[in-house]
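Final report, Chapter 2: Outcomes

The project's central promise was a pipeline that accepts a single protein chain and returns its three-dimensional structure in a standardized token representation, suitable for archiving and comparison. That pipeline is now operational. To close this chapter, we reproduce one record exactly as it appears in the project archive, with the input sequence first and the structure output second.
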Amino acid sequence: FNAIAFTFCAAAVAIAGGVAPLSAGAYGLAVCFAVLFVFTIMMIVVSMSMGPMGASVLIVNMSMMLPVVAGIVAWGESPTTLKLVGIGCMVLVLVLSSIGSGGDNDGKSKHGGAKWLIITIITMISNGVLSIQQKLFSFWFPSDSATAFSFTAFSIAAVICWVMTLVFKLRGADFKPWLSRKGEFTLCAAGVGLGTAGGNTFHLLSLTMLPAIVAFPLVQGSVVLAIWVLSLFVYHDKVTVPGIISRIAGIAGIVMLSI
């Protein structure tokens, strides 16, 4: 699935003008980003399969605090009181969004364990390092194209996933259950790929204009809000009190971080 999704992702960025040379250092960073990106995606799936989804999503999304801390310590970014309150609102969004989302479709809740917690924390750190790498690109290589970086990184990620797919196939893996509905499968992969391409490229561009302490909470909190709105109209999810409080906090946080 990821191999197809990243192929669509690389193709979309290429069409957007991503086929362009990078400096040697930017190429090296793109390789590191691609390898870590594939690892993080796999670890997110493992984490959610072993423990409660709500808690897994919450811990992984707390990775936004790593680039925020890095922005203050390494790049000397100074948050104002208003922006600190805005960051707090975005953290509240993530916490409240995890409430009530820990069960499976059959109503049985997964409680995780020490192994799940360790894997989830590793995933959170990995996701945070990815964000720091995005900031490093905009900080170290301001003359390189963000779309070219995205194209290079996702092309490498696609190759890694295709090689892994081939290895699993040679070892006897059965992909028939996944390919029983090829049209829907490909459409879903295309959606993930195109969404990843757009989200990552715009995020890289935002880091050239916004400090890390603003960009990362703003992006991750906004994604949670967007998913909630989508779930209301597409999946007809119930409106809950924590959900309402979470969305009010999210809107307030977006406003404060944008000022």
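Archive annotation: Confidence is low (pLDDT under 50) at residues 100-109.
This record, like all others produced under the grant, will remain available to the consortium after the project formally closes.
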